[in-house]
Amino acid sequence: GQQVMQIPQYQHVQEGEDFTTYCNSSTTLSNIQWYKQRPGGHPVFLIQLVKSGEVKKQKRLTFQFGEAKKNSSLHITATQTTDVGTYFCAVETGNQFYFGTGTSLTVIP
Amino acid sequence: KAGVTQTPRYLIKTRGQQVTLSCSPISGHRSVSWYQQTPGQGLQFLFEYFSETQRNKGNFPGRFSGRQFSNSRSEMNVSTLELGDSALYLCASSFSGSGNQPQHFGDGTRLSIL
Predict the structure, then answer these.
(1) Nearest chain A Cα to B88, which residue?
(2) Is B40's Cβ below 8 Å from some Cβ in A?
């Protein structure tokens, strides 16, 4: 099945520092989605990227789709305690979603 | 608009028993997917239903089954429970299950096997 590798698995940052998580696929993707799951919560859709090299921003969050459409990144500028949670990328193949292993972000006040 | 509703929220069972979990999708959504989430394995796809038909199935044993009703509500059944089935079971709905649509997750059912 589809393999989606996500790194790092864990990240601890001081509040105000930046954070980046990376998602890599062995195959070319039609699109990629990002989700956030707060501790004790459920995954919540953040954004979808479709085009090669696409960059989308949501306030302090910047999402990028690689030129070859095989990788993606999520960058958070100046983290806040509200950013705590696990960030997942997700790709779809044949109506089946494959989620990355997730990056758990801890923000130290 | 009400979100995805999963019942029950928590369940405690013993090995060998069976369990049925329920998921009511967002109104108008016809695709329902089920996932198993564990600390070691992450989010793993179980199956997806659309218009009462199972369209896709993940790599889980036959003890895991599901169905979807005409109102798009879905149930998941696990028979002969094993300790390793302890997990958070999440369902997600979308309008058609297409890969370019976001999935909307419920709060999940946390299943503990003793």
Answers:
(1) A42
(2) no
The C-alpha angle B63, B68, B70, rounded to 5 degrees, equals 160
Q: CB contact, 8 Å: A25 with chain B?
A: no
Interchain CB contact of A85 with B (< 8 Å): no
Sequence-ordered strand ranges (E) for chain B: 5-7, 10-13, 19-24, 31-38, 42-50, 53-57, 64-68, 74-78, 87-94, 104-105, 109-113
A97 → closest Cβ in B42, B103, B107: B103
Model pLDDT, residue A1? 65
Q: What is the mean pLDDT of residues A8-35?
A: 96
pLDDT in tens, B40-67: 788 999 999 999 999 989 999 999 999 9
What are the pLDDT digits (tens) for A88-103?
999 987 767 899 999 9
Instruction: Please list every residue in chain B whose beta carbon sits closer than 8 Å to the beta carbon of residue A49.
Output: none
Q: Which whole-number Å values give the CA distances from B32 to A25, A44, B25, B90, B102, in the listed order? A: 25, 16, 7, 10, 12
